[in-house]
Amino acid sequence: MEKIFQLHDPNQSIKQFYAVEGGKERIITAADDTVVQHANYEDRKEDGFSVDRQIRRVARIYMPTVRMLINQYKDQDAYLYLNYGDEKARDRMIERYPLLFKACSGGV
After folding, report:
1. CB of 77 within 8 A of CB of 90?
2. Residue 97: which domain range?
3. Do residues 47 and 89 both lie within one domain?
4. 105: which DSSP letter?
5. N or C end: fewer C-beta atoms under 10 angstroms in the chain?
6. Residue 28's pLDDT band (cuts 50, 70, 90)
7. Over 90: is that where the pLDDT of 64 sits?
8. pTM higher than 0.90 for the full model?
């Protein structure tokens, strides 16, 4: 029977577990964006403008989420944004995954 021990802080977006079965040991890494989802939910209650109403915030980009898109979904736009800072790739990525990124009202 495999025993699994939690290695991460519950407030982190990456979950890690230490698993032991027989004489084999391994570390399991799983992405979890519940913290980001909650922050995005809270941010969606606003209209997307700064307190002084002078600038409009575009989106919250959380880099572990971008890395998750690269690793799990092989997303080319996430790769271009992470490695080269491509703004058009960022905008496409935000439009494709609206639940992962907080976009202001009215779109990007």
Report:
1. yes
2. 34-108
3. yes
4. T
5. N
6. confident
7. no
8. no
Instruction: Measure the N-to-C terminal CA separation of the chain; round to a whole number of Å.
Output: 49
**Confidence band of 100 (pLDDT split at 50, 70, 90):** confident
DSSP-derived pairing of the beta strands 24-31 and 59-60 = unpaired
For the four alpha carbons of 6, 11, 12 and 14, in that order, the dihedral sign comes to: positive
Distance CA 68, CA 6 (A): 20
Backbone phi and psi for residue 10, each to the nearest 5 degrees, phi listed first: -60, -20
> Does residue 15 or residue 108 have the better pLDDT?
15
Radius of gyration of the chain (CA): 17
Is residue 75 located within the same domain as residue 91?
yes
Domain count, the chain: 2
Token pair of 19 as six digits: 């698993």
Q: Distance between CA atoms of 102 and 1, rounded to whole angstroms?
A: 41
